[in-house]
Amino acid sequence: MGTDLDNDWDGYHSKVWDTYTGDVLHSFPHQHIVRGCDFSGDGTRIVTGGMEKKLRIFDLNREDTTGQPLLSCDAHSSVIRNVVWDGARNMILSSGDSMEIKVWDPRTLNPMHTCKMDGPVTSMDLSADGHYITSTSGKSVYFWDAQTYTLRNHVKTEHDVSAVSLHPSHSRFVAGGTSDLWVRIYDFESGRELEVYKGHHGPVHTVSYSPDGELYATGSEDGTIRLWQTTPGKRYGLWQGDGTEDA
């Protein structure tokens, strides 16, 4: 479903939008704020989680208009802030203030695994190649094997971390935080801080490497998204004008 996008911040609904027209294709009611949602691997379902501490799965091909979920469960003891549908393994990941990542079978919403952490989970995602589950809590960054759900690496930084992205080569990762305005690069194996950059005027809430690893993007409370070169000064891309206007 490449033309669709879910939006989980409109009141107590999870909505699916057509990215070409901006039309709302589906709207699923909830009883409280939805904090996270994701598509299934085949794009036919979505999973949601939020302030209700529940997981819900909705069928996008269902013809009835009641908006009732296919499945739902009481998933966590605290707020759910992050939801990921691992399409490669057909598993659902959820996390939040309850200090753990839970893995669910989407066919039944039965719990399959639990990854314990030392504090509330501020972010969680899959690496671009699907090999790692990345998560953050306080000043710590965790990398879990996405196949076995065992802890592969635990990096303790000196700063609060709110978002992390692993480079496609698995050699380094970029991290942003809410306690300062800096973007930091760390070595994956040793956890050593390699580079520090400042460009935002507000806390950094999200970071992501490009698929080729040549760029990474950062999003901040200052209302901007910035693109950074992984290797500063290296030529990247070519943009050529048509010669009719001055550059």
From TrEMBL:
Keyword Repeat: yes
Keywords, in A-Z order: mRNA processing, mRNA splicing, Repeat, WD repeat
Name of the protein in question: Serine-threonine kinase receptor-associated protein
InterPro entries: WD40/YVTN_repeat-like_dom_sf, WD40_repeat_dom_sf, WD40_rpt
Mapped WD repeat ranges: 73-114, 197-238
Annotated Gene Ontology cellular component terms: SMN complex
UniProt entry tagged with the keyword Repeat: yes
GO molecular function, one term: RNA binding
Family: Belongs to the WD repeat STRAP family.
Single GO biological process annotation from the record: spliceosomal snRNP assembly
